[in-house]
Design a protein that fits this description.
The complex is a heterodimer of chains A (about 120) and B (about 110).
Chain A: E1 5-7, E2 10-13, E3 19-24, E4 31-37, E5 44-50, E6 53-57, E7 65-68, E8 75-79, E9 88-95, E10 105-106, E11 110-114
Parallel strand pairs in A: 2-11
Antiparallel strand pairs in A: 1-3, 3-8, 4-5, 4-9, 5-6, 7-8, 9-10, 9-11
Chain B: E1 4-5, E2 11-14, E3 19-25, E4 32-38, E5 45-50, E6 54-58, E7 61-66, E8 71-76, E9 85-92, E10 97-99, E11 103-108
Parallel strand pairs in B: 2-11
Antiparallel strand pairs in B: 1-3, 3-8, 4-5, 4-9, 6-7, 7-8, 9-10, 9-11
Classes of the chains: A mainly beta (about 120), B mainly beta (about 110).
């Protein structure tokens, strides 16, 4: 069991640039989630996929944000025209429906700094 | 009203003591609850989940759920310095987790 992986782990970009993050879920997990966490706060839900279908998007996900999971495996999160307020930890989680429910397991996160 | 509230400030406990953390939630229909541990600069790590009223024990951790009063608690017995972290309470559904702000625990050797 290799766990959820995310790449890159850190990203520094200038305001106005586009960035893309990748998440590879646990291999047998069919659900994949993106969250954002800022200092002193709990993670906030952004969006989730079941297989390749994006089933829910938070209102936090402005039109500058887009996420894909083209073959139901890895996912990408792109932020266009980054703003300083986008600086945060971007967390990916995955889950599989077990006998009890959906327990989500997080990857190590991508820390974004917008200068 | 926030979906999940964790209002306690940092909790300092002596090594070997019991740390007690609480959170409340607003949606009476919520069914599943989770506790995550987060070390500084790291991502959340799932340590407990509970779906039924009552207690659930796993090693030194006990989660308690009271749906009538809409609160969830986490007890850490025999606290160790390695338990020093922020503990996040979350409620789930099929689609997403809603987190509280977290409670910082400091275990003093």
């Amino acid at each position: 069991d290799t766990g959820v992986s995310q790449d890159p782990r850190h990203k520094i970009t200038k305001r106005g640039q586009n960035v893309t993050f990748r998440c590879d879920p646990i291999s047998e997990h069919n659900r994949l989630y993106w969250y954002r966490q800022t200092l002193g706060q709990g993670p906030e839900f952004l969006t989730y996929f079941q297989n390749e279908a994006q089933l829910e998007k938070s209102r936090l996900l402005s039109d500058r944000f887009s996420a894909e999971r083209p073959k139901g495996s890895f996912s990408t999160l792109e932020i266009q025209r980054t703003e300083q307020g986008d600086s945060a930890m971007y967390l990916c989680a995955s889950s599989f429906r077990g006998t009890s429910g959906y327990e989500q397991y997080f990857g190590p996160g991508t820390r974004l700094t917008v200068t | 009203q926030k979906e999940v509230e964790q209002n306690s400030g940092p909790l300092s406990v002596p090594e070997g003591a019991i740390a007690s953390l609480n959170c409340t939630y607003s949606d009476r229909g919520s069914q599943s609850f989770f506790w995550y541990r987060q070390y500084s600069g790291k991502s959340p790590e799932l340590i407990m989940f509970i779906y039924s009223n009552g207690d659930k024990e796993d090693g030194r951790f006990t989660a308690q759920l009271n749906k009538a009063s809409q609160y969830v608690s986490l007890l850490i017995r025999d606290s160790q310095p390695s338990d020093s972290a922020t503990y996040l309470c979350a409620k789930g559904g099929n689609n997403r987790l809603a987190f509280g702000k977290g409670n910082q625990v400091v275990v003093i050797p």
